[in-house]
Design brief:
Distance between the termini: 29 Å
Shape: globular
Strand content: 15-25%
Organism: Flavobacterium hibernum
CATH class: Alpha Beta
Pfam family, one: Rhodanese
CATH topology: Oxidized Rhodanese, domain 1
Number of strands: 5
CATH architecture: 3-Layer(aba) Sandwich
InterPro entries: GlpE_sulfurtransferase, Rhodanese-like_dom, Rhodanese-like_dom_sf
Helix content: 25-40%
Protein name: Rhodanese
Number of helices: 4
Number of domains: 1
Structural class: alpha/beta
Length: 103
């Protein structure tokens, strides 16, 4: 499900069962990420699927990438793998107005 930044942030803040998932590459992730994000690179293909299959399917996943395209695809894959609640951040981190962590 695609959410605007405003809705994504509001829903995330109210969700005690939330996991933030960054599906960018490790290099992109290391350039800065949303606090507490888990990084699983969608470009890993089958490796991405294996890692997604290990996740708790009862959690709610707030997914983002650079612009929102890869994370939309990630949400679709997650739904197919049995994760019902995957929320895509429209516009990705490019449009993100919140704080980021720079390692």
């Amino acid at each position: 499900m695609n959410l605007s930044q405003e809705d994504w942030v509001a829903q995330l803040a109210a969700d005690e069962n939330a996991v933030i998932l960054d599906v960018r590459t490790e290099d992109e992730f290391n350039d800065g990420y949303i606090e507490n994000a888990l990084n699983i690179d969608i470009n890993k293909g089958q490796g991405f699927i294996y890692e997604i299959e290990e996740l708790d399917k009862n959690k709610n996943y707030y997914v983002y990438c650079r612009s929102g395209a890869r994370s939309a695809k990630a949400c679709q894959i997650m739904n197919e793998l049995g994760i019902e609640n995957a929320y895509n951040l429209l516009g990705g981190i490019l449009d993100w107005e919140g704080e980021t962590v720079n390692p």
